[in-house]
Amino acid sequence: MAFSSNNNGGGAPMADINVTPLVDVMLVLLIIFMITAPLMAHKVQIKLPEANLDLTPTDPGRPITLAIKENGDIFWNDEPITAIMLESQLALEAQKKPQPRIDIRADRTTRYRVVQEVVKTAKNVGIAKVGFVATPDR
Q1: CATH code assigned at 90
Q2: Cα separation of 77 and 74, whole Å?
Q3: What CA–CA distances, in Å, run from 19 to 24, 45, 52?
Q4: Alpha helices (runs of H) in the chain, residue ranges in sequence order
Q5: Assigned domain for 2 exists
Q6: How far is CA 8 from CA 4, 5, 11, 12, 46, in A?
Q7: Is 55 inside a domain boundary?
Q8: pLDDT in tens, the chain (138 residues)
Q9: Is residue 113 part of a domain?
Q10: What is the pTM assigned to this prediction?
Q11: Spatial distance between the Cα atoms of 124 and 85, rounded to a whole number of angstroms
């Protein structure tokens, strides 16, 4: 409870309400609603795909991991491999039913051209599933 500061009141309580905190809160809420209101109205209506929560693996077997180092060295499941051997191995894997998934891991500083050539080789021999492995930012 607030008390009067003038001397003739003798310490009686003040009858005025302090509205400054109320005004501050209302201005903050007004700014929040002004920013978020335009985001709520979408002009273009699209039908978004629904999530598939089926957690069972669709392709049995282990995926093949291709690691690409910064200098262009390629590793097939942690074993070094040349570009020509890579193409023949991928062609062999493309013949299997079901096809294994190819996961590509590359260094952060690996040139995109090297990764693109590996992906192009995989697609040219008929590999259907090529993915990239990355670590999430913290």
Answers
A1: 3.30.420.270
A2: 10
A3: 9, 43, 52
A4: 20-40, 83-94, 112-125
A5: no
A6: 9, 9, 8, 9, 70
A7: no
A8: 555 556 665 677 777 888 899 999 999 999 998 888 877 776 666 666 676 655 455 545 688 999 999 898 999 998 999 989 999 999 999 998 888 899 999 888 889 999 999 999 999 999 988 988 887 766
A9: yes
A10: 0.54
A11: 15
